């Protein structure tokens, strides 16, 4: 059997970018996947790329909305009869300096990533505890949760909040066999809606490179001189959820080709 055969995954923000790559990998490993995102059509279109509704379904779920999050978890139970893997991936970056950041910007960043992943983890943990089968919760945090950089204070602060949720939940859910780990990606330019939606242009201007060269520019800053793609983050999610790491919890894995270690 495939490594994740019989397991059910919920991935937030999975209609595009890193989340879509994660959903694709988990499905390829045999999991049934719920693709949760803001837009139902986009979520369903992504799900249908993965296969029939026996394998993947798309649901509309704004992670800042408590009842929508509950409905996404319920959809997993209804469609696939359980829930085993949860990936907190939904996010956005406004990429603003301290003086540019409005209260609304601050609230949006924290609502989507800190509060959103709290709501998803809480709704999922209730199911995981009741099922008594253990489970995995993975947070897609960021290198920025640990390392400071200019012009994204609200983003980085909320990524640090997510990183601490990983440690807190690992402590609280360990006795139920639920592992909680995080991934710190960096420089996933190609395929990322965050980069395409404005962050890329801003970063390119800061570094003085054309936006279409940004992926290569990031690669040159890494120890491995490699560009990080959504698939590389997805690979790490799979490894974290595989039984080979079933004695690991509270860990953050960098997927940044070594930039944080440089
Ligand atoms: P992306 O824009 O392609 O994907 C983000 C997804 O989240 C989108 O599909 C979007 O619709 C969804 N989303 C946004 N707000 C939501 C909400 N309120 N409810 C539900 N879904 C919502 O960008 P990406 O680069 O693939 O980012 C995915 C995650 O990876 C984010 O959490 C991001 O912070 C993190 N990350 C990305 C990088 C990178 O280099 N691209 C680096 C570190 C961390």
From TrEMBL:
An example molecular function term from Gene Ontology annotations: oxidoreductase activity
Alphabetical keyword list: Oxidoreductase
Top-level lineage group: Bacteria
Oxidoreductase listed as a keyword: yes
Spans traversing the lipid bilayer: none
Keyword Repressor: no
Entry similarity comment: Belongs to the short-chain dehydrogenases/reductases (SDR) family.
Record's protein name: Bifunctional aldolase/short-chain dehydrogenase
Full-protein residues shown: 418 to 679 of 682
């Amino acid at each position: 059997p495939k490594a994740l055969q019989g397991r059910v995954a919920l991935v937030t923000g999975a209609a595009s970018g890193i989340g879509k790559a994660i959903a694709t990998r988990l499905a390829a490993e045999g999991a049934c996947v719920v693709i949760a995102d803001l837009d139902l059509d986009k979520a369903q279109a992504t799900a249908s790329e993965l296969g029939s509704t026996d394998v993947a379904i798309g649901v509309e779920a704004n992670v800042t909305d408590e009842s929508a999050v509950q409905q996404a978890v319920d959809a997993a139970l209804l469609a696939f009869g359980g829930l085993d893997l949860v990936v907190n991936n939904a996010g956005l970056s406004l990429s603003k300096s301290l003086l540019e950041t409005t209260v609304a910007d601050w609230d949006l960043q924290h609502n989507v990533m800190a509060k959103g992943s709290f709501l998803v983890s809480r709704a999922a943990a209730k199911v995981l505890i009741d099922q008594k089968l253990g489970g995995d919760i993975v947070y897609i945090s960021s290198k920025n949760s640990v390392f400071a950089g200019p012009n994204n204070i609200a983003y980085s602060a909320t990524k640090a909040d997510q990183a601490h949720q990983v440690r807190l939940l690992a402590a609280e859910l360990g006795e139920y066999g639920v592992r909680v780990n995080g991934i710190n990606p960096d420089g996933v330019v190609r395929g990322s809606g965050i980069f395409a939606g404005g962050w890329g242009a801003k970063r390119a201007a800061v570094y003085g490179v054309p936006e279409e060269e940004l992926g290569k520019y990031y690669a040159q800053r890494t120890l491995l001189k490699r560009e990080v793609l959504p698939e590389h983050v997805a690979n790490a999610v799979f490894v974290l959820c595989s039984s080979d790491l079933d004695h690991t919890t509270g860990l953050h894995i960098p997927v940044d080709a070594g930039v944080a270690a440089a």
